[in-house]
Amino acid sequence: MSVSSSSIGSCYPTKPKEEEKDAISCEDYYKLGSIAERNGLIEDAKKHFTAALKQANASKVDDMKSIIRARLNHFDTVIYPSDPSNVINLSNISILDDKKLKPFLHKNLTKLILNGCPSITKSSVRIIGEKCLELQILALRECSNISSITGGLLLKLAIFRKLEHLDISDCQNLKILGLIAPHLKILKAYNDKDLEILDLKAPLSVKIEAENAVKIKAETLEKLFGIEKLIRIAQQLDSNYCKFILKLFYPSMKDVILNADIKGIIPGERLIKTLLDRIDKKEEFIEELKTADSLSEVKLTVSEADKITDYPMSFGTTLQFVYDPKKTSKRDLPLLRKFPIEATILLVAKALETNAVVSKLDLSSCMIGKSVGVLEHPFKNNYTITHLDLSDNNIGAEFMFLANVLKDTPLKYLNLRSNRITAKGIAALAAFLITNRTMTHLDLSENNLGGNLLHENAISLGQAIGKNKSLTHLCLSGNKFNYSDAKALAKQPLTSSSLAKNSSLTHLDLSANEIGFFGLCLFLQGLETNQALTHLDLSSNQIECNATKRIEILKNNLKNNAIVMLDLSENKITADVQKALKRLEESKPNLQVKTTFGEFVEKTLDSLKEEFSDSED
Q1: The model's pTM
Q2: How open is the CA angle 232-349-332, to the nearest 5 degrees?
Q3: Dihedral (CA of 568, 574, 580, 582) sign
Q4: Which of 2, 145, 462, 595 has a 20 to 30 Å separation from 532 between CA atoms?
Q5: Are 14 and 104 within one domain?
Q6: Which 3 state secondary structure label does DSSP give 477?
Q7: Residue finishing a domain among 175, 196, 216
Q8: What beta strand segments (E) does 377-421 contain?
């Protein structure tokens, strides 16, 4: 049985002030008990209904007594939900304080409405941030007892990882707002006249509606978000780079790019207009954005001309920053000289912070280098990027900073080819692989990870692969792995964690290494118990197989595993041995051993020769 708040209020006759206060408390406790009951908080519901009955007795509201008693008596006959609702509205309950709010808070809560609750304090807001990890909408309008929104004793800022909408309008005593909200889209602060300290870590695209909040101005917000510095960087970019960054900004700042009417302040508005002014054929580009089916796949292409490093005409290796006295002030020069690459990637990072559309991001061959650390923040809060290509960027040891945040992302494909990743980077990557549950494809080729001096890299990778449960394709081509590295990858005597224990990896590319014939045997021995790996590429590995005895060894090592495709091409394998391998294929019907380039390569070479001869004629 339910009773609306309007019908409850209408049953009160005129009373003295104390009885009227008790009647309001009765109504509030009844509402609180009803909401608790709907969310399966039975003990709290009983407590609130009991308090409501006590207040009804004190206020002599006879009609309410029977209703409340009926609610208290039916608890044993009703089946209640086991999980609380993801949307809870506790608005206009004057008795709702920090203690009474706590039972309603849970990690899956997405929307919480607390408008008109004068007993809610800053402590409640901090607890909401700590407990409600999935919260997207929070309304605190007319919560007059909130003086500040900040973190705990050690944290200056309150943290809301997934918050998108925040309403703090008409909070008369609110003076300080310190907030980390990487996905915030709308902040409403109407009539917050006393709000004087604003420390907001949010995307540049956040829309702030703050009418009559006299101390929140566009100039203040631009200074807070560092817009001036970003604009000075944007003024040095050519049209192509500006277009790339605008594509990243477009999903979240569509109204600004299309010059639509905007209610409120957007901190990055002036930056977007600067980028638009830098591009060629602006109207055509905007039409292209409007008609684009999807902007989920983006690639930053750096031309060879932009990779020059001739000082002083160019101040970086990512983009060509040409000094122009008319466009570049003297204060810009230290920025461009000291942070040329970081400055450019910083804009890309800022755009990524606002983007919830891109799923495939290609930053290959952009000469990012040590600036990869700038991408740490946007990736830490990104839930859409599944494909990331960072190949040919000379990242080195700096990858360890990125590896720490990638473990919590939905990343499936990661390309780190040719990045000179060091032992520290590999250790961070190994830790990432152990905990990651989404990655299926990983390319670590051409990183020089192997050799006697770097044997620990193979050990770290072997242990991580053994514990990983999601990886299906791994490329370790061109890493100078030798026979001992092959053994460490496949089977380590000191640990149960190795490739032999992996149950998900199906494709492994170890081509262009130096494992030799004995490395091949050690590797296959380690795979005796592995029933997942089906495709193994050991082409170009200095494998010498020129005796029938070695064929017998190879045959014995291939007995028990699940390999169906073994690539031994570009190795020193004699014609007699190739024939013996053909017989081995016949004895194991599912096995295919490749020892040459194959007919399709020969045909391709023949066709190229014909084209070349035709062009000469």
Answers
A1: 0.79
A2: 20
A3: positive
A4: 595
A5: no
A6: coil
A7: 216
A8: 387-389, 413-415
